[in-house]
Amino acid sequence: MSEELTQILLDAQSTDQEKRNQGMERIKSAKDNNLPVFLVLLAEELKSEEKPNESRQLAGIILKNTFVSKDEQKKIELANVWCNFKEDVRTEIKQILVMTLGSPNRIARHTSAQVIGAIGSIEYLKDLWPALFSDLIGYMNEETQKGSENIQEGVLTCIGYIAEELAEIEELPNVNEILEAISDGMTSENSNDELKLSATTALYNSLEFFESAFGKPQIRDHLMKAMINAAKNQNQKVSQKGLECLVKIAYVDYNSLENFIEDIYEITMKAMTCDNDLLALQSVEFWNTVCEEEEEINELILEEEQDNRVGKKYIQAVSENLVPNLCQLLTFQDEFEDSGWGVAQAATVSLSLISNLIENQITDLTIQFISDNIVHTEWNHKEAGIICLSSILEGTDTDQLQKVIDDALPLLLDYLEDDHEKVRNSSAYAIGRIFEYHFEAVAINTEVLENSIGALLNSLLDVPHVASNAAWALNNLAEANDYTNEETSPLSSFFMPIVEKLSVATLREDGEKSNLRFQAYEAISTTFLKSAQDTLDDMLLAVSPLLERLEATFSMELLSSNDEILQSQIQGSLCGVLQFMSVRLDKQIEEYAERLINCFLQVFKNPEAVVHEEAMMAIDSLINALGTGFLKYLEVVHPYFIGGINSYKQERLCSLTTNAVGDLFKTIEREIPQKCHSEYVDVFLEAISSEELENEVKPDMILVFGDIALSICGEFEPYLERVTETLEHASSVEYTEEDNDQINYIQNLQRSVLETYSGIIQGLKDDQKEELFLNYCQSIIEFLVRIHDTEEDFIDDKMLKAAAGLIGDILSILGNQVKEAFQIQPIQELVNACANSEKKSVAEVGKWALSRLL
């Protein structure tokens, strides 16, 4: 069978189509007939040095594809296939593959390493091969002593693959043994470049597992030196992998850099100026990672949170030399590369990160480069100057950049008509960044503002990525000009031209490219939301054309999945625009209300969940705009509210619907039919008790009970017992672990319970039924005591305000009937803490509650 298999594998690669088909068919037949036996034969083929390279290579590929997959579900299926083999078959295959790790044929040993990586990780996780690492290292040491030069590389490559597969577990066993093997492969004088590359790759894949080892200075320093030596290696593949290790260690253990930062600085500075883009890229990535770590450390310091990292301000120390190098890398643009990640892109990110860290100091380090390059005749230098300016805008003060912007903006507007696409694109982006972070530098010059709008509107006709950035810039312009409550604004005279040109852009046939259509609709929405009062009449005229567009999507011909995606995108964007129009037009939107409701409900027929979310937000805005005028549409919308609340698996839709129903009761109040509010109470109670509902939605649902009670007042009585039972259950949820998500959830839950109790007692009082609330005061007191006894860090101002507010409400309404019961030390301390808050609004509530308590 061995010779026959070899021929089959060769036939499967034949140039003769008939032979190739026969070979592939026989391989498939062998797999289907007896997969375990076939895999043993393939492993033997891969191991045999007498076999042709072609047959060994295909044997390895088939083996690898039997157990290796990037798809997670497929990986689970392949793992189950392997585990269902008999133990003796699995052992035989593993033994053959392990012996192949020392093959002089590099492809054979690397293929074997990859297959062992797959099946080894499967067995290790299922405790079928607990001695996996010891077996591999023991075999390597045994064979190395016999003079095998390939076994080290094969085993270390294998360990690298296994570590990559086991990325989700916290720590590997035999850490010291693995580290010793990796370190020896990286640093031994006898190691060739292939071995060093395999060892360095193994270290890179394993670094997260060795965090505990990095706590030991001797081991940490030894590994840091090994990484640095790898980064210095003359072999560029080894050097690149060494730099990748340094990038990763900066993230995994920032503290380890302290004694080696000078060496790393020299290596990275040299690599940035070499002719190998991959080395330069990793060098920039190292400093990007350091930036991100130091920015996070600074944020934790501001928030007074504990962290084991000690900020060393490396970026501050190296910026004087690092920034000029990064500026030069901006010129490394590829004229024919539209996207992708390269040295110039990494340097752009780096300058932005550094700008946020050293703030105004970045100006002096970049101003000369910007000035020299932004007027350069070569496109890549011109673009580099533009990008450099864009990158430093976020971290600097406007007064530091006023002159730079004054000089640069007219150039940028001219460059929107440059012959080179990349220059036009970067110019549009830079203008958008200026509007985003330094609009006040532009606002003082009316002529420049007018020129900017005109140039950007023209750019909406450019190629998609330029037009998209132009739309984004217009969005930022509108965002920076919030004149919602003003009679007029500097943009009022441009309102209709901006809306009309953006609307045309949304209709472009190539609108799906570079997110152009979405960006144009976003700009329209922001323009509507932020514009002054004198634009409302024009805005009202725009409702009907936009509704016509939305109505047209319902009859779109859907011939492919792309058509369906396009329909969803347009419907979602139009719902978003119409939502903001309802917010601004308020009661004026009423003449279009019926068409709007019909369109939004029609959108729910689209199977795409995200579009449902947009439609629900639009309905919510219409509720707030129409007020009691929405009541005439409640009957037709009500089933969609019930469906949205029951959409447990669509968390955002469920949450948005909950908010909409809350707004419904706040707006329409007692005019909502009893049948409706009864059904809402029932469906919310059922949802809150469901294990399928995400915890994040439950606090909002609880708050709606307070909205309902305030709305229907004494008519809430039939629901009182069931709702308060749910509130008592929610108030009893305890902190079980210091997990931020759980802490936030319980804080939100407790606040919602407190606020809902306040809504209920206020609602009952309006119909003189407050006596019904007496039955629940004792459980509320116990809840308040539990809050008092919670760790101080978990009781924020919002919690104190909600607690004091409830206490004040109860005492104001029930007075002496409950006053003595509430005059206990824990409650008094809660109210005092609220009254002593540094926030005025919180303190006022505390002082008011204190006046009722004493």
Automatic annotation (TrEMBL):
<keyword id="KW-0813">Transport</keyword>
<dbReference type="InterPro" id="IPR016024">
    <property type="entry name" value="ARM-type_fold"/>
</dbReference>
<dbReference type="InterPro" id="IPR001494">
    <property type="entry name" value="Importin-beta_N"/>
</dbReference>
<dbReference type="Pfam" id="PF03810">
    <property type="entry name" value="IBN_N"/>
</dbReference>
<keyword id="KW-0677">Repeat</keyword>
<keyword id="KW-0653">Protein transport</keyword>
<dbReference type="GO" id="GO:0005635">
    <property type="term" value="C:nuclear envelope"/>
</dbReference>
<dbReference type="GO" id="GO:0005737">
    <property type="term" value="C:cytoplasm"/>
</dbReference>
<keyword id="KW-0539">Nucleus</keyword>
<dbReference type="InterPro" id="IPR040122">
    <property type="entry name" value="Importin_beta"/>
</dbReference>
<dbReference type="GO" id="GO:0031267">
    <property type="term" value="F:small GTPase binding"/>
</dbReference>
<dbReference type="InterPro" id="IPR011989">
    <property type="entry name" value="ARM-like"/>
</dbReference>
<feature type="domain" description="Importin N-terminal">
    <location>
        <begin position="23"/>
        <end position="103"/>
    </location>
</feature>
<feature type="repeat" description="HEAT">
    <location>
        <begin position="408"/>
        <end position="446"/>
    </location>
</feature>
<dbReference type="InterPro" id="IPR058584">
    <property type="entry name" value="IMB1_TNPO1-like_TPR"/>
</dbReference>
<dbReference type="InterPro" id="IPR021133">
    <property type="entry name" value="HEAT_type_2"/>
</dbReference>
<keyword id="KW-0963">Cytoplasm</keyword>
<dbReference type="Pfam" id="PF13513">
    <property type="entry name" value="HEAT_EZ"/>
</dbReference>
<dbReference type="Pfam" id="PF25574">
    <property type="entry name" value="TPR_IMB1"/>
</dbReference>
<protein>
    <submittedName>
        <fullName>Importin subunit beta-1</fullName>
    </submittedName>
</protein>
<dbReference type="GO" id="GO:0006606">
    <property type="term" value="P:protein import into nucleus"/>
</dbReference>
<dbReference type="InterPro" id="IPR000225">
    <property type="entry name" value="Armadillo"/>
</dbReference>
<comment type="similarity">
    <text>Belongs to the importin beta family. Importin beta-1 subfamily.</text>
</comment>
